[in-house]
Amino acid sequence: MAHFTPLASRILPLPMNDVDTDQIIPARFLKAINKEGMGDNLFADWRYNADGSPRTGFVLNKPEAKGAQILLAGDNFGCGSSREHAPWALTGYGFRAVISTSFADIFCNNALKNGLLPIVVDPATHADLLDLVEESPQAQVAVDLASQTVTLPGGKTVNFPIDGFSKTCLLNGVDELGYLLGFADQITEYEKRPGL
Amino acid sequence: MTKYLTLFQKIWNSHVVAREPESPAVLYVDLHLVHEVTSPQAFTGLRRRGLKVRRPDKTVATMDHSIPTHDPSLPILDQMAAKQIQQMEDNAREFGLTLHGMNSPHRGIVHVIGPELGLTRPGMTIVCGDSHTSTHGAFGTLAFGIGTSEVEHVLASQCLLQRQPKTCEVRVEGALAPGVSAKDIILALLAKIGVGGGTGHVFEYTGPAIRALAMEQRMTICNMSIEGGARAGMIAPDNTTFEYLAGREFSPRGRAWDEAVARWRALPTDEGAAYDKSITLHADDLTPMITYGTNPGMGMSITDRVPHPDGLSDLSQKMALAKALAYMGLQPGQPLLGRPVDVVFIGSCTNSRISDLRLAASLLKGRKVAPNLRVMVVPGSQDVKKQAEAEGLDAVFKAAGAEWREAGCSMCIAMNGDQLEPGQYAVSTSNRNFEGRQGKGGRTFLASPLTAAATAITGKITDVRTLLN
User: Fold this and answer.
1) Chain A residue with minimal CA distance to B127?
2) What is the tens place of the pLDDT at every residue in A126-154?
3) Which terminus of chain A is more solvent-facing, meaning fewer CB atoms within 10 Å of its CB: N or C?
4) Closest by alpha carbon to B91, among B130, B134, B32, B43?
5) Are the C-beta atoms of residues A67 and A94 closer than 8 Å to each other?
6) Residue-by-residue DSSP string for B10-47
7) Domain limits at A56?
8) Structural domain includes residue A135
9) What is the rounded average pLDDT for all residues in chain A?
10) CB–CB of A84 and B38 under 8 A?
11) Mean pLDDT, to the nearest integer, of A13-29?
12) How far is A184 from chain B, CA to nearest CA, in Å?
């Protein structure tokens, strides 16, 4: 996994609650046997008309969407299916962080394994960020994982939580499977238990 | 640390292989279920690293999501699905895994075949790249869905890196009235707590109404734990569990069986053990439930009226409900009873087991499905199909005018050819009513098999209690 480096980007708002992974990437795109190209179908049913043309008004089709790396999502983002295709689609599109008031458990796990940073903020900060993008869609927000901060254009800084293990993995590009395989001896020992 | 432990804590504690400070636990996995949709990229990862599957004997694969449910002698026309199915076969062969492939008599939905083969047993940890893995918790098993990276981790190491979730007791007091079933319990719970109410927690369902349920009904409840955001759902094993498991293909036999039952009897939560959270429902108050919106938490009693967004104080919830009703084409305040539908779907890992089919058939026997209504009955596995045919249930469905299909996920996920047309309405026994879940533009009302069968007869959303007696 690549190292997570500091980023500064515009924010794209999608502030609906309970956005499920079927919306992030509909099931018909899950027949692929690789990870590539998922970004083209990110939010496909909200993003495209039946004829495949971009749907006017959807946030990903606005001019300011181009190059944006931060999604501002609503509560319980990524609920439903365990499909890792959801973070593959988000990162494939170019997102590197999602800010919300909460994330569904499996989505959060999957995001962290793909270098996509789930940032949890309190409702007041979430509202401030939403006001910010509504007033100035071009505003740049900085995310720094090392200091666990989001910095707004006026210089206001907000801290966000992340567990130490995930932070280390993201910052240093640690390969979690490599870490897990380091326990091979303990796993072999465990497997000697009766009944296993 | 307390000496009194919950069911979850007992299983968790006995599966921690190692744990470093400030790091997640290395948790051992007793059974890894694999299917064609969430595994190809994991096998690619193994190949890239030159790794093997550590325990092929603890790994079982099947094909369920993208396979068509039509006559199996017909070719698979969807080239991408055909390729994915071929890839599963190739991967199973290359890595030495047991695969219940196209021609296996045991092929079926992964969460149906695990229990029916006796692969799912109390006290185990079970994972699968599928959120409805929570189903297996009905056996007093810690079972949860994982992503594809984690599928690769388990294939390679038989372990997962996991943070310990919290526990939540969901106690269901009382007894269910006729016409009300397990599906209505879980839909009522979801209506109460919402789709994020269980985040970070493992549910343990307790109380007399849960104890009274047969295993297949318990599976229905645990299956939809994920719809409340819970990591897993569990029910302590008891005699009902042991009777279900006795004699199954992979269940222990003879002395090994007696020893296993003795171990399983020690699993239930100790009296005096504490949960982090607790929720109580009263089964006597429950009626048949139905969803009106675009997530499983948007549910109500079938006799209620569609709620009004203005009745909600939270602005984002108000917006979410307004958006859901617009997608569903529903008006606040209107009843759902009597509303015509286009399709009735009886199937999915929630409600496709033999008892679900028996319930549906009991209502459809000697009756006809409404004109111009498509009714699909899709058994959860080829074994369920065989059993249903032995009991003559297929004849009941076909005589009524319903389609009797091959096993698979079918219209629950709309990636196998079975799907709603844009704008169509379905009453479905599946687990998700998300926008487009059953086909792009399709609109889903989630309900029990009894409600689905009642609706199949009238062609309109129907309170099954009016057809009983």
Assistant:
1) A82
2) 999 999 999 999 999 999 999 999 999 98
3) C
4) B43
5) yes
6) HHHHHHEEEE-TTS-EEEE-SEEEEETTTSHHHHHHHH
7) 7-191
8) yes
9) 96
10) yes
11) 96
12) 7
Asked if A76 lies within 8 A of B231 by C-beta distance, the reply is: no
Q: Who's near B446: CB < 8 A, 6+ residues apart?
A: B187, B290, B291, B296, B299, B428, B429, B430, B431, B432, B433
Report the number of distinct structural domains present in chain A.
1
Quick one: pLDDT at residue B316? 87
Inter-chain residue contact B148 with A102, CB threshold 8 Å: no
| Phi, psi of A14, rounded to the nearest 5 degrees | -140, 70
pTM exceeding 0.80: yes
Minimal-distance CA residue of chain B relative to A190: B17
For residue A77, give the CATH number of its domain: 3.20.19.10
Cβ separation A17–B317 shorter than 8 A: yes
Query: Nearest CB to B435: which of A45, A50, A114?
Result: A45
- Rounded Cα gap, residues A74 and A121, in angstroms: 11
What is d(CA B360, CA B391) in angstroms, rounded to the nearest whole number? 13
Q: Do A102 and B84 touch (CB under 8 A)?
A: no
Residues of chain B neighbouring A180 (CB-CB closer than 8 A)? 26, 153, 156-157, 159-161
**DSSP conformation letters of A113-159:** TTT-EEEE--HHHHHHHHHHHHH-TT--EEEETTTTEEE-TTS-EEE
How many angstroms separate the CA atoms of A47 and A50, rounded? 10
d(CA B426, CA B376): 11
Q: Encode pLDDT of A84-134 as tens digits.
A: 999 999 999 999 999 999 999 999 999 999 999 999 999 999 999 999 999
Is the CB of B26 less than 8 angstroms away from the CB of A186?
yes
A115 inside domain = yes
- CB neighbour class for B445 (10 Å; exposed up to 12, middle 13-18, buried from 19): buried
* Identity of the residue in B80, B195, B437 whose CB atom sits nearest the CB atom of A31: B80
Task: Identify the closest residue of chain A to B422 by CA–CA distance.
Answer: A50
Q: How far away is chain B from the Cα of A182, in angstroms, using its nearest Cα?
A: 10
Within 10 A of A23 (CB to CB), how many other CB atoms are there? 24
**ipTM topping 0.90:** yes
Residue B4 CA to residue B15 CA, distance in Å, equals 18
Asked if B414's CB is within 8 angstroms of A16's CB, the reply is: no
> Bridge-partner residues for A8, per DSSP?
A142
Say whether pLDDT at A176 is over 60: yes
Radius of gyration of chain A (CA): 18
Q: Which of A21, A45, A49, A84 to mutate to test the interface with B (most CBs of B within 10 A)?
A: A84
- A42 in a domain, yes or no? yes
Hey, of A82, A107, A179, A191, which one would you mutate to test binding to chain B, going by the most B CBs within 10 A of its CB? Answer: A82
Query: If you count them, how many residues does chain A have?
Result: 196
Residues of A in Cβ contact (< 8 Å) with B317:
17
Contact A18 B263 (CB under 8 A): no
Give the best residue of A105, A120, A189 to mutate against chain B (max B CB count within 10 A).
Answer: A105
Residue-by-residue DSSP string for B223-289? HGGGGGT-SEEE----HHHHHHHTT-TTS--HHHHHHHHHHHTT-SPPTT---SEEEEEEGGG---E
Amino acid at A30: L
Chain A residue nearest residue B31, CA to CA: A196
Residue A196 placed within a domain: no
- Which mean pLDDT values do the consecutive 10-residue runs of chain B (469 residues) have? 88 97 96 97 98 98 95 90 96 98 94 98 98 98 98 98 98 98 98 97 98 98 98 98 97 97 98 97 98 98 97 90 98 98 98 98 98 98 98 98 97 96 98 98 98 98 94
